Every structure is written in C-alpha cells, then in structure tokens.
Amino acid sequence: QVQLVESGGGLVQPGGSLRLSCAASGSIFSINAMGWYRQAPGNWRELVARITSGGITNYADSVKGRFTISRDNAKNSVYLQMNSLKPEDTAVYYCYANRVTGSRPYVEDYWGQGTQVTVSS
User: Fold this and answer.
1) Positions of E strands within the chain
2) Cα dist. 41→44, 90, 91, 94, 112 in Å?
3) pLDDT tens, 79-117?
4) CA end-to-end span of the chain, whole Å?
C-alpha cells in the first residue's frame, strides 16, 4: 500500500503561480510513474503531467509551457510548478503513483486525496 499526500493548493489570481508537492509513504519500493491529474466539477479526471522514474515527462497540451513537473526519487516526492495560471486551471489536483508488484494485478495505482486550486480575480 502507498499513501500520497498533496500540499500547496490554494487561491491565486490569474497570472499567478503555485507549487504543488506530493510525498509518498508506505510500500514505496518499485514506484514507477508519478504525476498529477485534475478534475473540475462536471468534468472527468484528466492528466496534467507525469514523470517516470527515469525522468521522462509528458504534459497535457493545455499546460505545456506553463507547468513543470519534477521528481525526487530519493524523497519519493513529486512536484508541480504552475505558472501563468488561468481560471480554467481551477480544479482539484490529485497526485498519482503506480508501482510494480510481485503478484496480480502486477501494477497498482494510487491516488492522493486531492488539493484544491482556484484561479480567480
């Protein structure tokens, strides 16, 4: 079992910045990819950014050039620097991680509780 705890959300004006943090604990061995998803009311949960243990990243088109994901494998943590925030970035942001196990289902997904990001003037 893996627990993920997010922090850093809040209220910010358009054009502002926030930095989200996520720390993993528990059975943290063999964690592979980590990332951030978000879900706005009435919408589906969508990928924002993810990063593999080897440092390969990808981003949603809507955040490219504005958000940066980073990872500290030694600390089992992942971060999301969000710049030039827009009202449409308003959502609950969820930390994500997966890991390989020695039995079925072989790959397990884990989610944080979510942190609210609100971009409003």
Assistant:
1) 2-7, 10-12, 18-26, 31-39, 46-51, 57-59, 67-72, 77-82, 91-100, 107-111, 115-119
2) 8, 9, 7, 14, 18
3) 999 999 999 999 999 999 998 888 888 889 999 999 999
4) 40
